[in-house]
Design brief:
Layout (H helix, E strand, L loop, with lengths): L2 E4 L3 E4 H28 L3 H12 L9 H12 L3 E3 L23 E3 L1 H18 L4
Antiparallel strand pairs: 1-2, 3-4
Length: about 130
């Protein structure tokens, strides 16, 4: 049965509905792939590694140079971390002298940052499994 007619002149074409459904599914999958790509590429591998270290509460020793300073500012600006102090200028720059410091004493991951890491793990696993 390729179609069904109903009182009042309504006609339902199954093949047409199947084609539209298939096209919508393809568009949804293409959109999902674009979103997955945005999730993966929204932060650099180095910044991701630093976010994971902050999440682990084990970020020592550290040195706040230009790169780490920029990454921490970026992570704060997108809501993935909060400073436990007034800001980046209040964090000792050299986290290994005179004693070893843990950057996690001064910075914490936010629930939004934790959600990002969890979502990113899902996307990476899905991509490793062939995108299914």
């Amino acid at each position: 049965m390729g179609s069904a007619e109903f009182p009042g002149g309504w006609k339902f074409e199954f093949r047409e509905l199947e084609a539209k459904t298939r096209k919508m599914h393809q568009e949804i999958e293409a959109t999902r792939r674009r979103i997955d790509n945005l999730i993966i590429t929204s932060i650099s591998p180095r910044t991701l590694g630093n976010l994971k270290k902050i999440a682990s509460h084990d970020f020592k020793p550290y040195f706040i140079g230009t790169g780490l300073s920029r990454e921490l500012s970026y992570l704060e600006s997108i809501g993935y971390i909060n400073f436990r102090c007034k800001g980046i200028d209040d964090i000792p720059k050299n986290g290994h002298e005179p004693r070893e410091l843990n950057l996690a004493e001064f910075v914490e991951i936010t629930p939004f940052g934790e959600e990002y890491l969890a979502l990113r793990d899902v996307v990476v696993k899905r991509n490793a499994d062939g995108g299914s």
